């Protein structure tokens, strides 16, 4: 029987297509049910993070929406010199979670996930859960996306010192995160059972 050999170039093209589909933002970012139906691996990652760190899916996804708009390679825009010359980026944030390099290293050291990548949704979902869980021990409510986001941005030390009070823009962003989390929560309640059934079918 003649063996079938796949052309290396064709194989490379297939891999590129699969990767581009996997990292492409969801078509309906305003609906958590449609996001999970389209991105089944994302749903699995979020549920795994919920079981490990107790962060609700709707809170986690509201963070990802705000931080990266579901873009795997998201980065802060470069600052401009003289208003038009691209300069350095304002921070080392990158990926779905926009985690800073130092915080990401802390996450890898503490969890043992040494190969974690900020451009990988599974790792980013676990990171957000890990970071949010630190707030639970300090009295944060699991559904308080606003406070959790302020601490996510300022650090728990900064949150305790209320550094966000001098940043009205950040407070407005945190309010939007809470509103989106509440919206996602209402949507999720309507499709959670269906998603759970399909999870067992697909995985």
| Classification by helices and strands | mainly alpha
Nearest-integer average pLDDT: 85
Largest sheet: 2 strands, antiparallel
| Global Rg | 19 Å
Large-scale geometry: globular
Q: Helix-strand pattern, N to C?
A: HHHHEEHHHH
Spatial arrangement of strands, main beta sheet = 1-2
Beta-strand content estimate: under 5%
| Total beta strands | 2
Q: Segments where pLDDT lies below 50 for 5+ residues?
A: 14-21, 78-82, 86-91
How far apart lie the N and C ends?
34 Å
The residue fraction in helices comes out at 55-70%
The count of helical stretches stands at 8
Secondary structure topology:
Layout: H1 8-23, H2 32-38, H3 40-53, H4 57-68, E1 80-81, E2 85-86, H5 101-111, H6 121-136, H7 145-160, H8 168-202
Helix pairs in contact: 2-3, 2-8, 3-6, 4-8, 6-7, 7-8
Any overview of this molecule?
This protein has a domain of 128 residues. The protein has a two-stranded antiparallel sheet with strand order 1-2. It starts with 7 loop residues before the first helix and ends with a helix. With 203 residues, it is an all-alpha fold. A hairpin with a 3-residue loop joins strand 1 and strand 2.
């Amino acid at each position: 029987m003649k063996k079938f050999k796949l052309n290396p170039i064709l194989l490379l093209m297939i891999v590129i297509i699969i990767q581009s589909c996997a990292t492409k933002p969801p078509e309906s970012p305003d609906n958590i049910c449609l996001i999970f139906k389209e991105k089944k691996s994302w749903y699995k990652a979020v549920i795994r993070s919920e079981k490990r760190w107790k962060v609700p899916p709707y809170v986690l996804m509201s963070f990802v929406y705000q931080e990266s708009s579901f873009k795997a390679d998201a980065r802060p825009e470069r600052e401009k010199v003289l208003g038009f010359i691209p300069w350095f980026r304002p921070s080392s944030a990158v990926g779905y979670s926009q985690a800073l390099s130092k915080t990401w290293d802390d996450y890898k050291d503490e969890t043992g996930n040494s190969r974690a990548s900020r451009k990988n949704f599974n790792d980013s979902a676990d990171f957000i859960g890990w970071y949010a869980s630190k707030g639970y021990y300090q009295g944060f409510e699991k559904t308080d996306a606003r406070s959790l986001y302020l601490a996510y941005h300022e650090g728990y030390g900064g949150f305790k010192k209320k550094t966000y009070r001098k940043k009205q823009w950040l407070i407005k962003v945190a309010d939007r995160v809470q509103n989106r989390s509440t919206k996602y929560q209402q949507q999720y309640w309507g499709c959670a059972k269906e998603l759970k059934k399909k999870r067992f079918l697909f995985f």
